[in-house]
Amino acid sequence: MNSSILALTGHSGSGKTTLAEKLIPLFLQQGYYPGYIKHSSHQHFFDQQGKDTARQFQAGAAFTLIGSEQSQMLHAKSPLSLDQLPLWPAWDLLLLEGWASLDHPRIHCLQQDEAPPQPKPGLLAIQCPSEAQAQAIN
Fold first, then answer.
1. pTM summary value
2. Residues 83-135: pLDDT tens digits?
3. Which end of the chain has the lower number of beta carbons within 10 A, N or C?
């Protein structure tokens, strides 16, 4: 059953990935089955040049999916819409890393010496790398 989405936002190097790594085991301990999607502004190549799925993608396939008994990886030409996620494996809590433009509850991660964002709907918490930043917010 797909239900909750939590975004982790902030600039590169602000600790979003580290926070997600710490949250996922905590959610698992609480009985949740979390999913994770990372937004990237860079193009990524998910397959090795010359291998079957890379060749089919280069030939014009709309998407390729490579899978084994342990895991699968999807490579698609069009961006994945969150509306398409029910087609994916069951999850009940989705962590989005990045995706600051989407309107979901979020934890914002600050870089060292970065000013906190203005309070706005959906901002649940701010992760601060220094005690001074945390005190300035309170």
1. 0.77
2. 766 566 677 888 999 878 888 999 999 999 898 888 888 999 999 988 888 88
3. C
Closest C-alpha among 25, 5, 26, 1 to residue 107: 5
Whole-angstrom distance, CA of residue 38 vs CA of residue 24: 14
Cβ–Cβ under 8 Å, residues 64 and 75: yes
Give dist(CA 74, CA 64) in Å, integer. Answer: 6
Please list, residue by residue across 52-91, b when 16 or more beta carbons sit within 10 angstroms of its beta carbon and e when fewer do. ebbeebeeeeeebebeeeeeeeebeeeeeeeeeeeeeeeb
How far apart CA 89 and CA 75 sit, in angstroms, is 16
Question: Mapping DSSP to helix (H, G, I), strand (E, B) and coil, where does residue 82 land?
Answer: helix
Report d(CA 57, CA 77) in Å as an integer: 9
| Amino acid, single-letter form, for residue 91 | W
Q: How far apart are alpha carbons 128 and 137 in whole angstroms? A: 9
Grouping H, G, I as helix, E, B as strand and the rest as coil, residue 37 is strand
